[in-house]
Amino acid sequence: MIPSATQAPPAPPAPVSGMGKYRWTICGLVFFATTVNYLDRAVISLLKPYLETEFNWNAGDYANIEIAFKLAYSLGMLGVGRVIDKLGTKIGYALSTFLWSLAAIGHAFVTTTLGFSVARAFLGVTEAGNFPAAIKTTAEWFPQKERALATGIFNSGSNVGAIIAPLTVPLIAETIGWKWAFIITGAIGFIWLALWFWLYEVPARHAKLTKAEFDYIHSDVDDLAAASIETEPKVSWFKLLTFRQTWGFVLGKFLTDPVWWFYLFWLPDFLSKQYGLKGTDIALPVAMVYMLSSIGSVGGGWIPLNFIKRGMPAFRARKTSMLLIALCVFPIVFAQQLGQINMWLAVLVIGIAAAAHQAWSANIFTTVSDMFPKRAVASVTGIGGMAGGMGGIVLSALVQKRMFVYYESIGQLDKAYFIMFWICGGAYLLAWGLMHLLAPTMKQINLDTTSPEAR
Protein backbone atom coordinates (compact mmCIF):
# COMPACT_ATOMS: atom_id res chain seq x y z
CA MET A 1 0.00 0.00 0.00
CA ILE A 2 2.89 2.38 0.77
CA PRO A 3 4.96 3.51 -2.23
CA SER A 4 8.69 2.98 -2.12
CA ALA A 5 10.61 5.95 -0.81
CA THR A 6 12.83 5.79 -3.92
CA GLN A 7 9.98 6.19 -6.38
CA ALA A 8 9.10 9.59 -7.78
CA PRO A 9 6.05 10.97 -5.99
CA PRO A 10 2.85 10.54 -7.99
CA ALA A 11 0.73 13.45 -9.13
CA PRO A 12 -1.67 14.57 -6.40
CA PRO A 13 -4.74 12.37 -6.72
CA ALA A 14 -8.21 13.81 -6.75
CA PRO A 15 -10.82 12.41 -4.39
CA VAL A 16 -13.05 9.80 -5.94
CA SER A 17 -16.64 8.95 -5.25
CA GLY A 18 -17.10 7.26 -1.88
CA MET A 19 -13.54 8.01 -0.74
CA GLY A 20 -13.04 9.48 2.69
CA LYS A 21 -14.95 6.99 4.80
CA TYR A 22 -12.09 6.30 7.18
CA ARG A 23 -10.56 9.75 7.53
CA TRP A 24 -13.93 11.31 8.34
CA THR A 25 -14.63 8.50 10.82
CA ILE A 26 -11.37 9.43 12.54
CA CYS A 27 -12.45 13.09 12.50
CA GLY A 28 -15.66 12.01 14.22
CA LEU A 29 -13.70 10.25 16.96
CA VAL A 30 -11.58 13.36 17.58
CA PHE A 31 -14.78 15.46 17.65
CA PHE A 32 -16.19 13.12 20.33
CA ALA A 33 -13.01 13.37 22.42
CA THR A 34 -13.02 17.17 22.22
CA THR A 35 -16.69 17.22 23.25
CA VAL A 36 -15.89 15.17 26.36
CA ASN A 37 -12.83 17.32 27.04
CA TYR A 38 -14.84 20.53 27.18
CA LEU A 39 -17.81 18.98 28.93
CA ASP A 40 -15.55 17.93 31.79
CA ARG A 41 -13.85 21.31 32.12
CA ALA A 42 -17.12 23.31 31.87
CA VAL A 43 -18.92 21.52 34.70
CA ILE A 44 -17.42 23.60 37.52
CA SER A 45 -18.58 26.94 36.05
CA LEU A 46 -22.19 25.71 36.14
CA LEU A 47 -21.85 24.29 39.63
CA LYS A 48 -20.29 27.53 40.92
CA PRO A 49 -23.47 28.70 42.73
CA TYR A 50 -23.79 25.34 44.54
CA LEU A 51 -20.10 25.23 45.42
CA GLU A 52 -20.06 28.88 46.58
CA THR A 53 -22.79 28.01 49.06
CA GLU A 54 -21.18 24.81 50.28
CA PHE A 55 -17.58 26.06 50.48
CA ASN A 56 -18.15 29.81 51.03
CA TRP A 57 -16.24 30.88 47.91
CA ASN A 58 -15.84 34.45 46.72
CA ALA A 59 -14.62 35.66 43.31
CA GLY A 60 -11.01 35.36 44.48
CA ASP A 61 -11.40 31.72 45.56
CA TYR A 62 -12.95 30.81 42.21
CA ALA A 63 -10.20 32.66 40.34
CA ASN A 64 -7.55 30.73 42.32
CA ILE A 65 -9.15 27.41 41.38
CA GLU A 66 -9.31 28.56 37.76
CA ILE A 67 -5.62 29.55 37.89
CA ALA A 68 -4.70 26.10 39.25
CA PHE A 69 -6.36 24.50 36.22
CA LYS A 70 -4.71 26.87 33.75
CA LEU A 71 -1.24 26.56 35.29
CA ALA A 72 -1.39 22.77 35.21
CA TYR A 73 -2.83 22.85 31.70
CA SER A 74 -0.03 25.12 30.52
CA LEU A 75 2.74 23.01 32.01
CA GLY A 76 1.05 19.88 30.73
CA MET A 77 0.90 21.29 27.22
CA LEU A 78 4.63 21.85 27.23
CA GLY A 79 5.38 18.20 27.93
CA VAL A 80 2.41 16.31 26.52
CA GLY A 81 3.19 17.16 22.91
CA ARG A 82 6.56 15.44 23.30
CA VAL A 83 4.90 12.43 24.91
CA ILE A 84 2.38 12.12 22.08
CA ASP A 85 5.07 12.52 19.43
CA LYS A 86 6.95 9.68 21.17
CA LEU A 87 4.04 7.33 21.96
CA GLY A 88 2.05 8.07 18.81
CA THR A 89 -1.52 9.26 18.56
CA LYS A 90 -3.23 5.96 19.37
CA ILE A 91 -1.63 5.36 22.77
CA GLY A 92 -0.95 9.00 23.65
CA TYR A 93 -4.53 10.15 23.04
CA ALA A 94 -5.96 7.18 24.94
CA LEU A 95 -3.71 7.71 27.95
CA SER A 96 -4.63 11.38 28.19
CA THR A 97 -8.37 10.70 27.96
CA PHE A 98 -8.23 7.92 30.55
CA LEU A 99 -6.44 10.15 33.06
CA TRP A 100 -8.58 13.25 32.57
CA SER A 101 -11.75 11.14 32.96
CA LEU A 102 -10.46 9.91 36.31
CA ALA A 103 -9.65 13.50 37.29
CA ALA A 104 -13.14 14.71 36.36
CA ILE A 105 -14.78 12.01 38.46
CA GLY A 106 -12.40 12.78 41.32
CA HIS A 107 -13.99 16.21 41.82
CA ALA A 108 -16.99 14.48 43.38
CA PHE A 109 -14.87 13.30 46.32
CA VAL A 110 -13.32 16.68 47.20
CA THR A 111 -14.28 18.21 50.54
CA THR A 112 -12.23 21.44 50.71
CA THR A 113 -11.43 24.47 48.58
CA LEU A 114 -7.79 23.40 48.45
CA GLY A 115 -8.95 19.99 47.31
CA PHE A 116 -10.74 21.58 44.37
CA SER A 117 -7.55 23.36 43.36
CA VAL A 118 -5.71 20.02 43.40
CA ALA A 119 -8.47 18.29 41.44
CA ARG A 120 -8.56 21.07 38.87
CA ALA A 121 -4.77 20.94 38.52
CA PHE A 122 -4.89 17.20 37.83
CA LEU A 123 -7.69 17.75 35.31
CA GLY A 124 -5.68 20.51 33.64
CA VAL A 125 -2.46 18.57 33.19
CA THR A 126 -4.28 15.53 31.78
CA GLU A 127 -6.70 17.46 29.53
CA ALA A 128 -3.68 19.13 27.94
CA GLY A 129 -3.24 16.06 25.75
CA ASN A 130 -6.39 16.58 23.71
CA PHE A 131 -5.36 19.26 21.24
CA PRO A 132 -1.77 18.13 20.52
CA ALA A 133 -3.13 14.63 19.87
CA ALA A 134 -6.06 15.95 17.83
CA ILE A 135 -3.91 18.18 15.62
CA LYS A 136 -1.39 15.39 15.08
CA THR A 137 -4.22 13.00 14.17
CA THR A 138 -5.56 15.52 11.67
CA ALA A 139 -2.11 15.99 10.14
CA GLU A 140 -1.81 12.21 9.78
CA TRP A 141 -5.22 11.68 8.19
CA PHE A 142 -5.90 14.78 6.05
CA PRO A 143 -4.13 16.59 3.20
CA GLN A 144 -3.25 20.23 3.81
CA LYS A 145 -6.24 21.65 1.94
CA GLU A 146 -8.73 19.75 4.14
CA ARG A 147 -7.06 20.21 7.51
CA ALA A 148 -8.74 23.49 8.47
CA LEU A 149 -12.16 21.98 7.73
CA ALA A 150 -11.34 18.81 9.67
CA THR A 151 -9.94 20.91 12.52
CA GLY A 152 -13.05 23.09 12.49
CA ILE A 153 -15.26 20.02 12.71
CA PHE A 154 -13.44 18.37 15.59
CA ASN A 155 -12.92 21.73 17.32
CA SER A 156 -16.70 22.26 17.26
CA GLY A 157 -16.77 19.47 19.83
CA SER A 158 -15.61 22.06 22.35
CA ASN A 159 -18.83 23.94 21.69
CA VAL A 160 -20.98 20.83 21.80
CA GLY A 161 -19.45 19.96 25.17
CA ALA A 162 -20.17 23.47 26.37
CA ILE A 163 -23.76 23.17 25.06
CA ILE A 164 -24.40 19.81 26.72
CA ALA A 165 -23.04 21.09 30.04
CA PRO A 166 -25.64 23.81 30.76
CA LEU A 167 -28.46 21.59 29.51
CA THR A 168 -27.55 18.72 31.83
CA VAL A 169 -25.32 19.78 34.73
CA PRO A 170 -27.78 22.11 36.54
CA LEU A 171 -30.52 19.50 36.11
CA ILE A 172 -28.32 16.75 37.59
CA ALA A 173 -27.30 19.04 40.46
CA GLU A 174 -30.91 19.96 41.21
CA THR A 175 -32.16 16.36 41.14
CA ILE A 176 -29.42 14.10 42.54
CA GLY A 177 -26.71 16.50 43.72
CA TRP A 178 -23.64 18.32 42.39
CA LYS A 179 -21.30 15.37 43.01
CA TRP A 180 -23.15 13.23 40.49
CA ALA A 181 -22.66 15.92 37.84
CA PHE A 182 -18.90 15.32 38.06
CA ILE A 183 -19.24 11.53 38.14
CA ILE A 184 -21.65 11.17 35.21
CA THR A 185 -19.86 13.57 32.88
CA GLY A 186 -16.44 12.17 33.76
CA ALA A 187 -17.52 8.61 32.99
CA ILE A 188 -18.33 9.44 29.36
CA GLY A 189 -14.61 9.44 28.56
CA PHE A 190 -14.47 5.67 29.05
CA ILE A 191 -17.05 5.19 26.29
CA TRP A 192 -14.77 7.12 23.93
CA LEU A 193 -11.80 4.96 24.92
CA ALA A 194 -13.59 1.79 23.82
CA LEU A 195 -14.44 3.33 20.42
CA TRP A 196 -10.91 4.68 19.97
CA PHE A 197 -9.21 1.32 20.44
CA TRP A 198 -11.77 -0.34 18.21
CA LEU A 199 -11.61 2.09 15.27
CA TYR A 200 -8.31 3.97 15.27
CA GLU A 201 -5.01 3.26 13.54
CA VAL A 202 -2.53 5.45 11.68
CA PRO A 203 -3.03 5.40 7.87
CA ALA A 204 0.13 3.38 7.18
CA ARG A 205 -1.13 0.54 9.39
CA HIS A 206 -4.87 0.78 8.77
CA ALA A 207 -5.91 -2.63 7.44
CA LYS A 208 -8.92 -1.40 5.43
CA LEU A 209 -7.58 1.87 4.01
CA THR A 210 -7.38 1.80 0.20
CA LYS A 211 -4.28 2.91 -1.66
CA ALA A 212 -6.34 5.61 -3.38
CA GLU A 213 -7.32 7.19 -0.09
CA PHE A 214 -3.82 6.79 1.34
CA ASP A 215 -2.38 8.61 -1.67
CA TYR A 216 -4.99 11.35 -1.40
CA ILE A 217 -4.23 11.87 2.30
CA HIS A 218 -0.55 12.36 1.45
CA SER A 219 -1.07 14.18 -1.83
CA ASP A 220 0.83 17.26 -0.63
CA VAL A 221 3.77 15.31 0.82
CA ASP A 222 6.82 14.62 -1.31
CA ASP A 223 7.99 11.47 0.43
CA LEU A 224 4.93 9.33 1.19
CA ALA A 225 6.78 6.66 3.08
CA ALA A 226 8.48 9.11 5.41
CA ALA A 227 5.20 10.90 5.99
CA SER A 228 3.40 7.67 6.81
CA ILE A 229 5.77 6.11 9.30
CA GLU A 230 7.57 8.72 11.33
CA THR A 231 11.08 7.30 11.64
CA GLU A 232 12.79 10.70 11.56
CA PRO A 233 14.53 11.87 14.74
CA LYS A 234 12.43 13.97 17.09
CA VAL A 235 13.13 17.68 17.36
CA SER A 236 14.05 19.39 20.62
CA TRP A 237 11.98 22.22 22.07
CA PHE A 238 15.05 24.44 21.97
CA LYS A 239 15.44 23.97 18.25
CA LEU A 240 11.75 24.57 17.63
CA LEU A 241 12.00 27.82 19.57
CA THR A 242 14.66 29.10 17.16
CA PHE A 243 12.06 29.39 14.39
CA ARG A 244 10.01 32.56 13.93
CA GLN A 245 7.05 30.39 12.89
CA THR A 246 6.97 28.81 16.35
CA TRP A 247 6.87 32.23 17.97
CA GLY A 248 4.10 33.40 15.65
CA PHE A 249 1.95 30.49 16.79
CA VAL A 250 2.97 30.97 20.44
CA LEU A 251 2.00 34.66 20.48
CA GLY A 252 -1.24 33.99 18.64
CA LYS A 253 -2.25 31.45 21.27
CA PHE A 254 -1.02 33.57 24.19
CA LEU A 255 -3.22 36.48 23.17
CA THR A 256 -6.41 34.68 22.11
CA ASP A 257 -6.75 31.54 24.24
CA PRO A 258 -7.46 33.57 27.40
CA VAL A 259 -10.52 35.03 25.72
CA TRP A 260 -12.01 31.56 25.33
CA TRP A 261 -11.15 30.74 28.94
CA PHE A 262 -13.04 33.88 29.92
CA TYR A 263 -16.16 32.77 28.04
CA LEU A 264 -15.96 29.26 29.44
CA PHE A 265 -15.44 30.08 33.10
CA TRP A 266 -17.19 33.46 33.48
CA LEU A 267 -20.15 33.49 31.08
CA PRO A 268 -22.57 31.83 33.55
CA ASP A 269 -21.41 34.28 36.22
CA PHE A 270 -21.93 37.24 33.86
CA LEU A 271 -25.48 36.16 33.09
CA SER A 272 -26.20 35.55 36.75
CA LYS A 273 -24.77 38.84 38.04
CA GLN A 274 -25.94 41.09 35.18
CA TYR A 275 -29.40 39.63 34.54
CA GLY A 276 -30.23 37.69 37.70
CA LEU A 277 -30.41 34.27 36.04
CA LYS A 278 -30.25 31.31 38.41
CA GLY A 279 -30.01 27.52 38.18
CA THR A 280 -31.52 26.07 35.02
CA ASP A 281 -32.44 29.59 33.75
CA ILE A 282 -28.84 29.95 32.58
CA ALA A 283 -29.02 26.84 30.37
CA LEU A 284 -30.63 28.32 27.25
CA PRO A 285 -28.54 31.52 26.85
CA VAL A 286 -25.28 29.65 27.52
CA ALA A 287 -26.30 26.91 25.10
CA MET A 288 -27.12 29.54 22.45
CA VAL A 289 -23.62 31.04 22.72
CA TYR A 290 -22.03 27.67 22.12
CA MET A 291 -24.46 26.72 19.37
CA LEU A 292 -23.25 29.79 17.50
CA SER A 293 -19.68 28.77 18.33
CA SER A 294 -20.22 25.40 16.65
CA ILE A 295 -21.27 27.16 13.45
CA GLY A 296 -18.20 29.35 13.66
CA SER A 297 -15.89 26.39 14.17
CA VAL A 298 -17.01 24.57 11.04
CA GLY A 299 -17.35 27.82 9.09
CA GLY A 300 -13.82 28.76 10.07
CA GLY A 301 -12.58 25.65 8.32
CA TRP A 302 -14.78 26.22 5.26
CA ILE A 303 -13.65 29.82 4.59
CA PRO A 304 -9.99 29.09 3.69
CA LEU A 305 -11.01 25.93 1.81
CA ASN A 306 -13.32 28.05 -0.31
CA PHE A 307 -10.56 30.59 -0.97
CA ILE A 308 -8.16 27.78 -1.95
CA LYS A 309 -10.72 26.32 -4.35
CA ARG A 310 -10.89 29.74 -6.02
CA GLY A 311 -7.15 29.62 -6.66
CA MET A 312 -5.79 31.55 -3.68
CA PRO A 313 -2.50 30.18 -2.25
CA ALA A 314 -3.04 28.25 0.98
CA PHE A 315 -1.06 30.63 3.20
CA ARG A 316 -2.91 33.68 1.83
CA ALA A 317 -6.26 31.95 2.22
CA ARG A 318 -5.41 31.19 5.85
CA LYS A 319 -4.21 34.74 6.60
CA THR A 320 -7.17 36.39 4.88
CA SER A 321 -9.60 34.16 6.73
CA MET A 322 -8.00 34.91 10.08
CA LEU A 323 -8.14 38.67 9.50
CA LEU A 324 -11.84 38.52 8.64
CA ILE A 325 -12.44 36.40 11.72
CA ALA A 326 -10.53 38.83 13.97
CA LEU A 327 -12.76 41.66 12.76
CA CYS A 328 -15.86 39.64 13.66
CA VAL A 329 -14.82 39.54 17.33
CA PHE A 330 -14.64 43.29 17.81
CA PRO A 331 -18.40 44.02 18.23
CA ILE A 332 -18.28 42.26 21.63
CA VAL A 333 -17.16 45.62 23.08
CA PHE A 334 -20.81 46.71 22.73
CA ALA A 335 -22.24 43.66 24.56
CA GLN A 336 -23.33 45.53 27.68
CA GLN A 337 -24.90 48.44 25.79
CA LEU A 338 -26.89 46.00 23.68
CA GLY A 339 -27.79 44.05 26.81
CA GLN A 340 -29.42 47.14 28.24
CA ILE A 341 -31.88 46.97 25.36
CA ASN A 342 -32.44 43.24 25.65
CA MET A 343 -30.43 40.47 27.29
CA TRP A 344 -30.64 38.35 24.13
CA LEU A 345 -28.80 41.02 22.13
CA ALA A 346 -25.89 40.68 24.55
CA VAL A 347 -26.07 36.90 24.26
CA LEU A 348 -26.09 37.22 20.47
CA VAL A 349 -23.02 39.46 20.22
CA ILE A 350 -21.11 37.30 22.72
CA GLY A 351 -22.14 34.25 20.70
CA ILE A 352 -20.83 35.82 17.48
CA ALA A 353 -17.52 36.60 19.20
CA ALA A 354 -17.32 33.06 20.56
CA ALA A 355 -18.09 31.71 17.07
CA ALA A 356 -15.31 33.88 15.68
CA HIS A 357 -12.91 32.53 18.29
CA GLN A 358 -13.68 28.97 17.24
CA ALA A 359 -13.21 29.89 13.59
CA TRP A 360 -9.89 31.48 14.55
CA SER A 361 -8.96 28.38 16.54
CA ALA A 362 -9.63 26.08 13.58
CA ASN A 363 -7.21 28.13 11.50
CA ILE A 364 -4.48 28.88 14.02
CA PHE A 365 -4.15 25.19 14.85
CA THR A 366 -3.90 24.40 11.16
CA THR A 367 -1.03 26.85 10.73
CA VAL A 368 1.13 24.41 12.71
CA SER A 369 0.72 21.61 10.17
CA ASP A 370 1.10 24.22 7.40
CA MET A 371 4.49 25.33 8.73
CA PHE A 372 6.00 22.24 10.37
CA PRO A 373 6.61 18.61 9.36
CA LYS A 374 4.35 16.02 10.97
CA ARG A 375 7.04 14.81 13.36
CA ALA A 376 7.02 18.21 15.09
CA VAL A 377 3.29 19.04 14.96
CA ALA A 378 2.32 17.78 18.43
CA SER A 379 5.39 19.39 20.04
CA VAL A 380 4.74 22.81 18.48
CA THR A 381 1.04 22.54 19.31
CA GLY A 382 1.99 21.76 22.89
CA ILE A 383 4.31 24.76 23.12
CA GLY A 384 1.58 27.02 21.78
CA GLY A 385 -1.00 25.46 24.08
CA MET A 386 1.27 26.14 27.03
CA ALA A 387 1.53 29.77 25.91
CA GLY A 388 -2.26 29.97 25.66
CA GLY A 389 -2.63 28.62 29.17
CA MET A 390 -0.03 31.05 30.49
CA GLY A 391 -1.93 33.87 28.85
CA GLY A 392 -5.02 32.68 30.67
CA ILE A 393 -3.13 32.69 33.96
CA VAL A 394 -1.88 36.23 33.38
CA LEU A 395 -5.41 37.37 32.56
CA SER A 396 -6.88 35.65 35.63
CA ALA A 397 -4.18 36.78 38.05
CA LEU A 398 -3.62 40.36 36.91
CA VAL A 399 -7.02 41.27 35.52
CA GLN A 400 -9.84 38.98 36.60
CA LYS A 401 -8.76 38.19 40.15
CA ARG A 402 -7.76 41.69 41.16
CA MET A 403 -10.18 43.63 39.00
CA PHE A 404 -13.25 41.48 39.56
CA VAL A 405 -12.70 41.25 43.31
CA TYR A 406 -12.24 45.02 43.53
CA TYR A 407 -15.27 46.01 41.46
CA GLU A 408 -17.42 43.38 43.14
CA SER A 409 -16.45 44.79 46.54
CA ILE A 410 -17.67 48.27 45.56
CA GLY A 411 -20.80 47.01 43.81
CA GLN A 412 -19.67 47.93 40.27
CA LEU A 413 -19.00 44.54 38.70
CA ASP A 414 -20.37 45.77 35.38
CA LYS A 415 -17.21 47.92 34.96
CA ALA A 416 -15.01 44.84 35.25
CA TYR A 417 -16.97 43.13 32.48
CA PHE A 418 -16.79 46.31 30.35
CA ILE A 419 -12.98 46.25 30.54
CA MET A 420 -12.89 42.52 29.80
CA PHE A 421 -15.03 42.89 26.67
CA TRP A 422 -12.60 45.51 25.32
CA ILE A 423 -9.71 43.13 25.95
CA CYS A 424 -11.60 40.40 24.09
CA GLY A 425 -12.36 42.69 21.16
CA GLY A 426 -8.77 43.76 20.52
CA ALA A 427 -6.84 40.55 21.22
CA TYR A 428 -7.33 38.90 17.83
CA LEU A 429 -6.33 41.89 15.73
CA LEU A 430 -3.13 42.23 17.74
CA ALA A 431 -2.46 38.49 17.42
CA TRP A 432 -3.04 38.56 13.65
CA GLY A 433 -0.61 41.45 13.22
CA LEU A 434 2.14 39.71 15.19
CA MET A 435 1.64 36.39 13.39
CA HIS A 436 1.80 38.12 10.03
CA LEU A 437 5.01 39.89 11.06
CA LEU A 438 6.70 36.67 12.19
CA ALA A 439 5.41 34.30 9.48
CA PRO A 440 4.26 36.35 6.48
CA THR A 441 4.07 33.41 4.05
CA MET A 442 3.74 30.44 6.45
CA LYS A 443 6.22 28.49 4.34
CA GLN A 444 6.91 25.00 5.74
CA ILE A 445 10.30 24.94 7.38
CA ASN A 446 13.10 22.42 6.96
CA LEU A 447 13.96 21.13 10.42
CA ASP A 448 17.19 19.61 9.18
CA THR A 449 18.84 22.87 8.22
CA THR A 450 19.90 25.90 10.20
CA SER A 451 19.93 28.31 7.27
CA PRO A 452 18.17 31.66 7.71
CA GLU A 453 15.78 30.77 4.92
CA ALA A 454 14.44 27.90 7.00
CA ARG A 455 13.56 30.26 9.79
TrEMBL record:
Pfam families in UniProt: MFS_1
Location of the Major facilitator superfamily (MFS) profile domain: 26-443
Membrane topology: Multi-pass membrane protein
Record carries keyword Hydrolase: no
Ranges annotated as spanning the membrane: 22-39, 91-110, 180-199, 247-267, 287-308, 320-338, 344-365, 377-399, 419-439
Single GO MF annotation: hexuronate transmembrane transporter activity
Subcellular locations according to the entry: Membrane
Keywords in alphabetical order: Membrane, Transmembrane, Transmembrane helix
Main location class: membrane
Cellular compartments per GO CC: membrane
Matching PANTHER family: HEXURONATE TRANSPORTER, SOLUTE CARRIER FAMILY 17
Protein's name according to its UniProt entry: ACS family hexuronate transporter-like MFS transporter
